[in-house]
Amino acid sequence: MPILRDNRWAAVAAGLIGAAGVGLAAAASHAGGEALLRPASTICLAHAPALIALALAGDKIRVSDLAALGMSIGTLLFAGDLVARHFLGTGVFPMAAPTGGMTLIASWLLLAISAAMPTRR
């Protein structure tokens, strides 16, 4: 049963990002990382279910692949930068977190615009 046909990678990303979110929440609670690890956890745990939904939507949402890719990259940039700042004392690269955040916003807007368009026949 090919439920995830072309979007299987998005389900894999969702699982990894969700697991990272839980791990980051635990680290924030037990290792004193509230300022950086808690928001990184929140972003991961908010976008993992969205990625699962996009994986399951398949071709029912015209831009599901592109939105899922944007959400995956945006989450990795945003959360990854916060985690790097916490553990390494420096970010991934200048403006990584804002770039990730803008990528996430753009992905959600792309999804909204696509959903508002008439479906293909």
UniProtKB/TrEMBL annotation:
InterPro entries named in the record: DUF423 (IPR006696)
Domain of life: Bacteria
Keywords from the named record: Membrane, Transmembrane, Transmembrane helix
Bilayer-spanning residue ranges: 37-57, 66-84, 96-117
Name this protein carries in UniProt: DUF423 domain-containing protein
